[in-house]
User: Which sequence fits this backbone?
């Protein structure tokens, strides 16, 4: 089949027009027959071939960038969970520290010690009361002795009465009647004394017996109390010392938990610092993407020189160096993750040990329970002593009340009897003086006066002893009442505060154990997170494709730079590389750029003529001194789509 020449020319023209956009010379030069050399055509075909390869690399780079973002997104999500658990750990540690500072253990120890001191004070007070009881018994003993002497003094009157009857038997009846009336008065006084003193001294004997019984009871209680209190006080003191030691140990353990939690927080901060490389790698990946996009767009083929091939090589090498920096950033990310996770695991091991000992609160609870029970038994003994003292006080108070009446009665009776016997004695002396040969009667009258004097003296002594016993019993009753009031108040306080502290100790223990359980749970969850960080290797996921892309770029760079037609970089390409270098934001990136292209381009004087011919843009850049080009007036930002070529 033959082809029409016109058709052949049209097809040939179409094919030619299709390759014109990739030609290094303007369309007018090609039409004018300015033929390219074979090396130039070879260079352009090599550039087109490498650009197609770079187009595939650009797609692979996009997938790699997505993979990098995915890895950092995964790191961020896991970091969010880790930070949340770390915050929970810190909050639970703070709550546990508040529980430790608000522990009722010191208050319980203080209450127990105060109660023990109160027990000792009560025992000392009871011992003093016992001394008072003994003194009262001695006073009553002396009173009874003087009462016996008073009875003996009154018994002398009976003898005197008999002698009066004998001596007056031979006297006239008038004299006998006078002395008979005196004898009858003596007999009446004896009957009155026996009736009064017998009843009243029976009351004295009753009071003495009450005091003796109370003394015996208190002595027995004090003996039992001293025997039990000494052993129980030693046990309580040992328990309190153990409680204080346990409390100090728990305070130290709480401080250790606080310190370990702070260390865990610092290691978590190291993990968080790994996210700083996300923005760095994103910028570098975007940088490489923009550069490859510029190459893929094919603008390098619009230059008038054959330096485009060498420029493509330098650009590929530059981006390979950028990818190498991305790999270093991932290595740093891995290092931060390993450092933080290893530190967290080590700290959690210490925290687990501290929590294990901190959780051992049962000895504290058992010690408090034992101390409280022991103290409760001591309180029961105190209450028994207080009840006995109160009973003795009440009985003593009743005896004192009746004894007060008794003292008044005995004192009044003794005064009356002494006065009457004195009157009888004087009357007997007068009557004896009027009787002839009444010497014996006068002697009897004198004996009667002596008996009345003795009765008066003994009566006054009895009244004095009655007042002393009465005052001592009232003082003892007041001391008993005060001791009873103090002991009852202390027992009530100990009972109320003891129950309240027992409840607080139970609540505190349950709250502390619940807080420890929560802290333990957070520790376990954080350990799981740290174990995941240990197994997480984001560099492993991106290193292979990153290295493959980097190797491919280096191979492209070597192929371009080793091409026989590769020349020096033309002015347009140098200016583009200069603008491209301005997009770097770190000294490391600038160093990489300088290493690849041999330093930043120097300034050149550029003259550009823009010719609009459809969609074709031509630019002519004239060199001033060597390969240097002028820097652009404005430096584009990192996010701008700046053309490399």
Assistant:
């Amino acid at each position: 089949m033959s082809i029409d020449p016109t058709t052949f020319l049209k097809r040939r023209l179409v094919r030619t027009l299709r390759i014109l956009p990739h030609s290094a010379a303007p369309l007018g030069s090609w039409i004018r027959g300015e033929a390219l050399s074979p090396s130039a055509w070879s260079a352009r075909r090599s550039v087109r071939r490498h650009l197609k390869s770079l187009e595939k690399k650009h797609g692979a780079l996009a997938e790699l960038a997505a993979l990098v973002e995915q890895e950092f997104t995964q790191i961020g999500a896991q970091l969010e969970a880790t930070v949340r658990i770390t915050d929970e750990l810190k909050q639970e540690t703070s709550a546990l520290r508040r529980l430790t500072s608000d522990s009722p253990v010191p208050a319980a120890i203080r209450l127990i010690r105060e109660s023990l001191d109160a027990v000792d004070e009560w025992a000392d007070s009871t011992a003093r009361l016992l001394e008072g009881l003994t003194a009262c018994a001695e006073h009553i003993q002396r009173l009874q002795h003087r009462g016996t002497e008073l009875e003996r003094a009154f018994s002398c009157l009976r003898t005197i009465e008999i002698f009066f009857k004998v001596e007056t038997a031979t006297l006239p009846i008038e004299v006998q009647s006078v002395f008979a009336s005196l004898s009858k008065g003596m007999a009446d006084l004896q009957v009155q004394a026996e009736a009064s003193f017998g009843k009243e001294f029976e009351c004295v004997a009753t009071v003495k017996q009450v005091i003796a019984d109370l003394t015996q009871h208190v002595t027995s209680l004090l003996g039992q109390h001293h025997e039990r209190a000494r052993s129980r006080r030693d046990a309580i003191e040992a328990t309190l010392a153990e409680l204080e030691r346990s409390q100090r140990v728990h305070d130290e353990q709480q401080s250790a938990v606080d310190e370990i939690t702070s260390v865990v927080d610092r290691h978590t901060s190291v993990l968080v610092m790994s996210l700083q490389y996300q923005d760095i790698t994103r910028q570098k990946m975007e940088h490489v993407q923009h550069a490859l996009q510029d190459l893929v767009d094919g603008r390098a083929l619009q230059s008038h020189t054959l330096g485009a091939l060498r420029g493509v090589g330098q650009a590929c090498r530059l981006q390979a160096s950028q990818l190498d920096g991305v790999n270093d950033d991932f290595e740093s990310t891995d290092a931060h993750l390993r450092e933080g996770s290893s530190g967290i695991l080590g700290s959690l091991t210490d925290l687990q040990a501290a929590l294990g000992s901190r959780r051992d609160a049962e000895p504290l609870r058992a010690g408090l329970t034992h101390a409280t029970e022991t103290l409760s038994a001591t309180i029961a003994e105190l209450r028994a002593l207080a009840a006995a003292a109160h009973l003795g006080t009440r009985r003593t108070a009743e005896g004192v009340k009746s004894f007060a009446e008794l003292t008044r009665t005995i004192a009044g009776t003794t005064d009356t009897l002494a006065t009457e016997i004195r009157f009888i004695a004087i009357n007997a002396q007068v009557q004896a003086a009027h009787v002839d040969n009444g010497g014996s009667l006068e002697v009897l009258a004198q004996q009667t006066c002596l008996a009345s004097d003795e009765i008066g003296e003994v009566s006054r002594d009895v009244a004095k002893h009655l007042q002393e016993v009465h005052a001592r019993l009232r003082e003892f009753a007041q001391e008993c009442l005060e001791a009873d009031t103090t002991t009852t108040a202390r027992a009530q306080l100990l009972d109320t505060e003891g129950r309240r502290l027992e409840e607080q100790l139970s609540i505190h223990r349950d709250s502390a154990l619940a807080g420890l359980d929560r802290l333990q749970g957070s520790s376990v969850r954080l350990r799981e997170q740290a174990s995941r960080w240990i197994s997480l290797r984001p560099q492993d996921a991106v290193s292979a494709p990153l290295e493959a892309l980097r190797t491919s770029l280096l191979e492209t760079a070597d192929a371009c730079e080793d091409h026989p037609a590769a020349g020096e970089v033309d002015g347009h390409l140098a200016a583009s590389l200069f603008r491209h270098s301005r997009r770097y934001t770190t000294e490391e990136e600038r160093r990489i750029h300088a290493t690849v292209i041999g330093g930043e381009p120097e300034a050149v004087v550029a003259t550009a003529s823009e010719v609009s011919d459809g969609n074709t843009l031509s630019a002519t850049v004239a060199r001033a001194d060597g390969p240097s080009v002028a820097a652009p007036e404005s430096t584009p930002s990192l996010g701008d789509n700046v053309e490399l070529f």
Remarks:
- The radius of gyration is 61 Å.
